[in-house]
Amino acid sequence: MAKRRPTVREPRGQHGPAGEDAATDGGQRREFYRRMVFIRRFEERAARAYTQAEIGGYCHLNLGEEATVVGLMSALEQTDYLFTNYREHGYALARGVAAGRVMAELYGRRDGVSKGWGGSMHLFDGNARLLGGYGIVGGQLPLATGAALAIDYRGGDEAVACVMGDGTTNIGAFHESLNIAALWNLPVVYVVVNNGLGMGTTVEKASGEPELHRKAASYRMSSARVDGNDPVAVREAMLSALASARSGRPFLLEAVSSRLKGHSVVDPAKYRTREEVEALRTSDPVAALAFRLRDEGELTDEAIAEIDAEATSAVAAAVAFAEASPAPSVDTLFDYTYATPVPNDSRRLPGQPLFEPAPLPRIGADR
Ligand SMILES: Cc1ncc(C[n+]2csc(CCOP(=O)(O)OP(=O)(O)O)c2C)c(N)n1
Ligand SMILES: [Mg+2]
């Protein structure tokens, strides 16, 4: 078989959507702060709705990862594709999906971004090129790699961002995906959000190479590590990673971040020491950026309070939208499993028999 040659692409413009107020450095940080506060308030509200049993299934939050989420998403072009794990509410919001549609999906309602059938872990929006939310650890990696291969086949100039957690770098699909992307020069950036934990297990306990970005070396892939609490640094690092991917050199970017709460809403995170909890309080990226902007004279206390109030009321509107949306009809349960008709697609509802039992011959009956 002929060896695949790298597709050479021109690096594209380096300015993803960063908002109206982003012309200056201070303006960009203000805009990032607004987006981070919005995610913070959205997630806190989602946690409340979950404990009130308005949201079912699992619910994993981006609390503590807001700077990483916002910095990463600001670097993507609108035509780029995004795959993430189940901790993806913030990504959908930062990608521009309407907050009401995200909240309605968490509530399992018809106007949700996945029509109410996906829930928290399976947000999907083709228009925003958000191709999921995946609940299987590492499930998104082969799919993202395949999407990058599709772009390469078509000769497109889009890139794929494939976001995962630290624990995911120990899964077989991680190594298979990086290997094939490196061999075939695919336009993909693998982003490891290193929040220090996979459920309750630390990176040091789970990974033979705890400096996760160095795992790329096995595949001669370029990589970098960035402070995930600094949205501007994350954006810059992601822009370089994307430029590399677009020119046919896939990239592994590790953003060192933290998870402020438990693995999911129901996890009390008892495995954390008091010192860790205290350290988290002082490294909170939302508070840190607020202090910085205030010290630099970019935001007054009043402006900070106003941003908070705006976020809180937008989130309240999202909840109202979700609450007003009806539950999806059971008739549509199977409508979105496959994009095209599949011959052996089972449409069996819970409780329905697998097949009709064949009649048994009766003893003594005529043959
Ligand atoms: C294949 C598979 N194994 C185990 C699980 C259970 N599980 C869910 S999340 C998780 C930890 C993943 O940690 P990480 O990749 O660091 O992501 P984070 O939750 O920190 O964002 C595990 C083990 C799963 N969902 N899928
Ligand atoms: Mg993790």
CATH superfamily of the domain at 57-92 and 122-300: Thiamin diphosphate (ThDP)-binding fold, Pyr/PP domains
Please give the CATH architecture of the domain at 57-92 and 122-300: 3-Layer(aba) Sandwich
**How much helicity do the residues have?**
25-40%
Bound molecules: thiamine diphosphate, magnesium ion
The total strand number stands at 8
Q: Provide the residue-averaged pLDDT.
A: 92
The major beta sheet can be summarized as: 6 strands, parallel
Supply Rg: 23 Å
Shape: globular
Given the structure, what is the number of helices? 11
Q: Indicate the structural class.
A: alpha/beta
Order of helices and strands: HHEHHEHEHEEEHEHEHHH
Q: Which regions have little confidence, pLDDT < 50, spanning 5+ residues? A: 1-17
CATH class of the domain at 57-92 and 122-300: Alpha Beta
How are the strands of the largest sheet arranged?
Answer: 2-1-3-4-8-7
Can you tell me the CATH topology of the domain at 57-92 and 122-300?
Rossmann fold
Distance between the termini: 61 Å
